[in-house]
Amino acid sequence: MTTPIHETVFLGGFWFFHICTVGFKVKEDRNRMSLLVAETIWSEIQSTRSVSDDQLAILHILFGKNLERATRIVDEGGVKKILGQPSGRSIFQVVGESRRKEEYLCFPQHYCACYSFFYDIVNRGEQLCCKHQLAARLAVSLGTCVDVKVSDDHLAHLLAKL
Q: Domain SWIM-type, which positions (predicted)?
């Protein structure tokens, strides 16, 4: 297998680049499919407000150790949904697991302010999402997040810190 890659690099960089692009596309498609499966599971959990062992097993396959950490955060009541009034806009505030108990602002499907989001997800592409995003998704699906109503001005102030 090493020889063909070496030969294509030697004969012209285009084919090597093409092989890398194809590999990236496969990983991107796999991630997209994993997120679609996860979305189906989140919807099922939300409809019953409970999670089965089978659903947990599938989520664990998709998210690994981050799911375990997220369940601890949810069990400890570490997820708040900050709701702006009167707009109804929202963001989640999720407690970290460190001794400092830092709180991270996140949009469960798109962004988290934690270091892991930038390092493991954005830069390295090793995870689909961080434990804070998972905790927010799980808490919403189970109906266990704490709703905190704030003014739209206060919400804007929180968002400006991102």
A: 92-141
